[in-house]
Specification:
By secondary structure, the protein is of the alpha+beta class. It has 2 domains: about 5-165, Peroxisomal Thiolase, Chain A, domain 1 (3-Layer(aba) Sandwich), CATH 3.40.47; about 170-330, Peroxisomal Thiolase, Chain A, domain 1 (3-Layer(aba) Sandwich). It has 10 helices and 14 strands. The strands form 4 sheets. It has a 6-stranded mixed beta sheet with strand order 5-4-6-7-1-14, sandwiched between helices. The structure holds oxa(dethia)-CoA.
Length: about 325
C-alpha cells in the first residue's frame, strides 16, 4: 500500500473581526464572561463557505506547487454548505479548475478528522493526491440574539494537500464514533437557527474527546508521551484545557487558536494545525494527536506523523512565507 504525507496547507479567514466588546453592544453579555467561560477574544465573521474554501485551497495548492489537473479527489468537510444542493465541493471544483471527483463530508466539528482518515485510506489504495478543505461559516446560521451561541462561533477555512509518498505514513491510527441519540443537543432545522444545549455538549465533549483520543493512541500503538502536539477541536478553551490535562499534555504541548478564531466548526482542527506549522511549532517527523467532537454527536481522533520528505520530483517549491494577518499557509520540505 502506498504511503502518504501532508505536503501543504493554506487557511482563510474573512477580514471582518468581531470583538467581545462589539458583542456587548447588542447582547446581554460581557467581555469578561466570554473570555473566562470560552477563552475567546475575537472571531472573524463573513464570506461564504465556498469562497473561504477556494481561498484556502489556492494557498495550499500554490505551496504544494501542484496544478488543478494533479488533484485526484476533492473532499470538502463542512456543516454549513452555501446551498442545500449541490455539494460545496462541486462549486469549489469548478472555481479551482479541478477535473477530479468531489464530495462533501458532514459529520459535525469532527468532519476534518473523518476526511483526513478517509483520504489517507484512498491514497493507500491508489490516489496520488487528495485536496481536503474544511470550511464553515457558522455565523450565517447563528441566532444573533442567542448569547449562548452568538459569542462562540467564527468563520474560517483550512485546506490540506495529502500526497502519496513511498515509505511515509500520515495517519498512524484513528478512532471514529457517534451517538445519534444526542442529535438534539446541537442541531439546525432547515430555515432555522442553530440550537445548542451548551452544558450538555460541554459535558459529553470532554468525555468523548478523552476516550477517543486514548483510543486513537492505542490503535496506533503510540504513547501520549511520544506526542509532540495535541490539536483538539477548538470548541471552548475550558474543554481544551480539561481534555489536554486529563491526557497529560501541558499548555505548551496543546495547540489553541480559539482566542482569535472562536469555534470555527470543522475548520478548527486544520486551522490550528496550519497555524502550528506556520509558526514553527511542528517539525518534520513530529507526532500529532487530533481530537474532534461535535454535532451528531460525533467524535474522531487520529495520530498523524507530520511532514516527511517527498520523492525529489515532488519536492515542494520553497517560498518565503507570506505574512498575512488573516491567513497562513506553508509546505513541508
Ligand atoms: O463545536 C460544537 C461544540 N460546541 C461546544 O463545544 C460548546 C460547548 N459548551 C460551551 O462552550 C458552554 O456551555 C457555553 C460557553 C455555551 C456556556 O458556558 P457555561 O459555562 O456552560 O454557561 P451556562 O450555560 O452554564 O450558563 C451559566 C450562566 C447562565 O446564567 P444563570 O442561569 O446562571 O443566571 C447563562 O444564562 O451564564 C449565562 N450565560 C451568559 N452570560 C453572559 C450564557 N451565555 C452567556 C453570555 N454572556 N454569552
Amino acid at each position: 500500500m502506498a504511503g502518504s504525507t501532508i505536503t501543504a496547507w493554506g487557511t482563510a479567514l474573512p477580514p471582518h473581526v468581531v470583538t467581545n466588546a462589539d458583542l456587548e453592544g447588542h447582547l446581554d453579555t460581557t467581555d469578561s464572561w466570554i473570555l473566562s467561560r470560552t477563552g475567546i477574544r475575537t472571531r472573524h465573521v463573513g464570506g461564504t463557505t465556498r469562497g473561504l474554501a477556494v481561498e484556502a485551497a489556492r494557498r495550499a495548492m500554490d505551496q504544494a506547487a501542484i496544478d488543478p489537473r494533479q488533484v485526484d479527489l476533492l473532499i470538502v468537510s463542512t456543516n454549513t454548505p452555501d446551498l442545500a444542493v449541490p455539494a460545496v465541493a462541486a462549486l469549489v471544483q469548478h472555481e479551482l479548475g479541478l477535473s477530479c471527483g468531489v464530495f462533501d463530508l458532514t459529520s459535525g466539528c469532527s468532519s476534518f478528522v473523518y476526511a483526513l482518515v478517509v483520504a489517507d485510506g484512498l491514497v493507500a489504495i491508489g490516489l496520488r493526491r487528495v485536496l481536503i478543505i474544511a470550511s464553515d461559516t457558522v455565523s450565517r446560521i447563528v441566532d444573533p440574539e442567542d448569547r449562548s451561541t452568538a459569542v462562540l462561533f467564527g468563520d474560517a477555512a483550512a485546506a490540506s494537500v495529502l500526497e502519496s509518498s513511498p515509505g511515509a505514513r500520515a495517519v498512524l491510527g484513528w478512532d471514529f464514533g457517534a451517538d445519534g441519540g444526542s442529535a438534539r443537543i446541537l442541531y439546525q432545522s432547515h430555515g432555522e437557527y442553530l440550537r445548542m444545549n451548551g452544558q450538555e455538549v460541554y459535558r459529553r465533549a470532554v468525555r468523548v474527546a478523552i476516550e477517543s483520543a486514548m483510543a486513537a493512541l492505542e490503535n496506533s500503538k503510540i504513547g501520549a508521551d511520544e506526542i509532540a502536539l495535541f490539536v483538539p477541536h477548538q470548541g471552548n478553551l475550558r474543554i481544551i484545557e480539561t481534555v489536554a490535562g486529563r491526557l497529560g499534555f501541558s499548555a505548551g504541548q496543546t495547540m489553541s487558536v480559539i482566542d482569535h478564531t472562536g469555534n470555527t466548526s470543522s475548520a478548527s482542527i486544520p486551522f490550528a494545525l496550519a497555524e502550528a506549522a506556520s509558526t514553527g511549532r511542528l517539525r518534520d517527523g513530529d507526532l500529532v494527536l487530533l481530537a474532534g467532537f461535535g454535532a451528531g454527536m460525533t467524535w474522531a481522533s487520529a495520530v498523524v506523523r507530520w511532514g516527511r520528505e517527498l520523492p525529489p520530483e515532488r519536492q515542494p517549491r520553497r517560498k518565503a512565507p507570506r505574512r498575512q494577518r488573516t491567513s497562513s499557509s506553508g509546505a513541508v520540505g
